[in-house]
Each structure stands twice: as structure tokens, then as C-alpha cells.
Design a protein that fits this description.
Order of helices and strands: EEEHEEHEHHHEHHEHEEHH
CATH superfamily: P-loop containing nucleotide triphosphate hydrolases
Distance between the termini: 35 Å
Shape: globular
InterPro entries: AAA+_ATPase, ABC_transporter-like_ATP-bd, BCAA_Transport_ATP-bd_LivF, P-loop_NTPase
CATH topology: Rossmann fold
Structural class: alpha/beta
GO molecular function: ATP binding
Family: Belongs to the ABC transporter superfamily.
Largest sheet: 6 strands, mixed
Protein name: ABC transporter ATP-binding protein
Strand order of the largest sheet: 6-7-8-3-9-10
Pfam families: ABC_tran
Number of domains: 1
CATH class: Alpha Beta
CATH architecture: 3-Layer(aba) Sandwich
């Protein structure tokens, strides 16, 4: 569904990504892991049109989308849950969710409330007053309101307690099963590789490893570099 081939991107004259290639299929959860500063957030920004692609091709359902506007890419079915959640803190949870459905006539909240029942009793609460975990649930739910083909989540676990991370991660297979593929950038490598089916390792702007998530989780290099165990 998503096919990235030899992508190059960066900020002005500063190149951050070189020849990045990856794929995400429908119903699939793919993890993107790597150290801080490797270019993971830059990659998501390039895929969603926030920064321009300097080279290579990004295809969604076989059609090129690089060079298109953020709005057009979103309209074609790509939603981006950014690092730090970026909710409209002064608006209610309901208002944040409805903003996620800007491109659809169907603005039914029920499917996302079934996934994240914690939000049901907080629809009229100002989003900025919720806990970090509830805000992350709201950010993901807002992204799902557009019924996307692909959801990209940047640093799902940032600032959250392990129990909350586990609770949110457990929802990802249900989202994928409903037809929304997931590309998740995550510092919690153990959690990411446990929930994902496949994964890519991004280091210094290059893909250095890829494969089945379970195989990468068992790889001694991954375990030593990212989990601190042999």
C-alpha cells in the first residue's frame, strides 16, 4: 500500500535521509526504530508532505504522492500522529476528534470510542487537562476519525508510564485489523517489536536492517544496542 523507494530528504541544504526504502501493506503494523537523531521523525514528515522530498518516490496504492500538499496527502488517506501529540489543548476532546474528521461527511465518534473507552466520559473535557496517556489516546483517535488507509505514529510512548504504553499498544492490532495500516516510530524497542509484524532500523539517515519484527527482537545486535542485553 505504501511503497517508499530511495527517498532522500532533509532541511534546506542539510540532508538527513539517504536512499530510504520501505513498504507497509494493508492490515500491517510496521515499526521504525533507531537512535535519537537517526532521521525517524524527518521520514514521517517527508511522507506526510510537511517537508519536501529531495529524491526518490513515495507511492500510496501505487500512485506517487511526493510533491503533493499536506492536505492532499491527508485526503488520499495518510494520517500523522506527531511526536508530543499536538492536540488543541484549549478545545474539548469531542472538538479535537471532530477536527480529525474534517474530510469526511461521516463524523460518527462511536468506532474510536469503542477502541478508547476512556475517552467516552471525557468528551466535554478540555483536552489539555487530561493525563498524558489520555491525550495520546485522543491524538490517535483523532487520526482515526478520517478513516485513513495509513496511520503514522511518532513516539507513541513519549512521556508515558509503561502500563499506559502497553494499554495503547494493545489497541494497534485492532486498528490494523480494521483496515488502517500502521507505521510506528518508537523508542521503546521491545514494545514496538512485540506488537509489529515487520520492522526497519534507521541509523544516520540510512536503513541498516529490516525483517520480521520477532527476528530483529532476537538479533544480538539489536538487543545489545537498544535493549542493553546480549
Amino acid at each position: 500500500m505504501l511503497d517508499v523507494e530511495n527517498l532522500a530528504a532533509g532541511y534546506g541544504r542539510v540532508q538527513v535521509l539517504w536512499d530510504v526504502s520501505l513498504q507497509v501493506q494493508r492490515h500491517e503494523i510496521v515499526a521504525l526504530i533507531g537512535p535519537n537523531g537517526a532521521g525517524k521523525t524527518t521520514l514521517l514528515r517527508a511522507l506526510s508532505g510537511i517537508i519536501p522530498v529531495a529524491g526518490g518516490t513515495v507511492r500510496l496504492h501505487g500512485k506517487p504522492i511526493n510533491g503533493r500538499s499536506v492536505e492532499d496527502i491527508a485526503y488520499r488517506g495518510v494520517t500523522h500522529v506527531p511526536e508530543g501529540r499536538r492536540l488543541f489543548a484549549g478545545l474539548t476532546v469531542r472538538e479535537n476528534l471532530l477536527l480529525g474528521a474534517w474530510r469526511r461527511r461521516d463524523k460518527n465518534l462511536e468506532p474510536v470510542l469503542e477502541l478508547f473507552p476512556n475517552l467516552r466520559g471525557r468528551l466535554n473535557q478540555v483536552a489539555g487537562s487530561m493525563s498524558g496517556g489520555e491525550q495520546q489516546m485522543c491524538a490517535i483517535a483523532r487520526g482515526l476519525m478520517s478513516q485513513p488507509a495509513l496511520m503514522m505514529i511518532d513516539e507513541l510512548s513519549l512521556g508515558l508510564a509503561p502500563k499506559v504504553v502497553e494499554e495503547i499498544m494493545q489497541r494497534l492490532p485492532d486498528i490494523a485489523a480494521s483496515g488502517t495500516a500502521i507505521l510506528v516510530v518508537e523508542q521503546d524497542v521491545d514494545a514496538a517489536l512485540t506488537v509489529a509484524e515487520r520492522a526497519y532500523v534507521l541509523e544516520n539517515g540510512h536503513i541498516t536492517m529490516d525483517g520480521q519484527a520477532a527476528s530483529l527482537l532476537a538479533d544480538p545486535k539489536i538487543r545489545m544496542a537498544y535493549l542493553g542485553v546480549a
